[in-house]
């Protein structure tokens, strides 16, 4: 889902409703939404390499799309 699709879905709802995040696919837990921020999603192998990345690897990261990250209270 992208931001446009999220806005379209949210625009059909009461703007005073609380925003909750489901903690897992099974729906066994919920948390109030604490906030959101633009972020870059990294592949786990790049995180492990950390500052030892070469220029080519960094350039690949810079090409990756940004994401809006929604984070729960707990």
Structure write-up:
The chain is of the alpha+beta class and 74 residues long. The chain has one domain (3-72). It has helices at residues 3-10, 44-49, 55-63, and strands at residues 20-22, 30-40, 66-72. A three-stranded antiparallel β-sheet has the order 1-2-3, with no helix packed on it. It is elongated. The model has no long low-confidence stretch (mean pLDDT 80).
Any descriptors?
3 strands, 74 residues, elongated, 3 helices, 3-stranded antiparallel β-sheet, alpha+beta
Question: What would you say about this model in short?
Answer:
The chain is α+β, with helices and mostly antiparallel strands and 74 residues long. The chain has helices spanning 3-10, 44-49, 55-63, and strands at 20-22, 30-40, 66-72. A hairpin with a 7-residue loop joins strand 1 (20-22) and strand 2 (30-40).
Overall 3D form: elongated
Mean pLDDT: 80
Number of strands: 3
How are the strands of the biggest sheet laid out side by side? 1-2-3
Query: Rg, please?
Result: 16 Å
The arrangement of helices and strands along the chain is: HEEHHE
How much of the sequence lies in strands comes to 25-35%
How many domain modules?
1
SS class = alpha+beta
* Unreliable residue runs: none
Distance between the termini: 23 Å
Q: What's the helix count?
A: 3
Helix content: 25-40%
């Amino acid at each position: 889902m992208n931001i446009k699709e999220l806005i379209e879905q949210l625009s059909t709802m009461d703007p005073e409703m609380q925003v909750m995040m489901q903690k897992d696919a099974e729906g066994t837990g919920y948390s109030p939404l604490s906030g959101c921020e633009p972020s870059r999603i990294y592949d786990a192998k790049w995180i492990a390499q950390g500052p030892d990345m070469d220029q080519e690897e960094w350039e690949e990261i810079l090409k990756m799309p940004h994401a809006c990250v929604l984070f729960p209270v707990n």
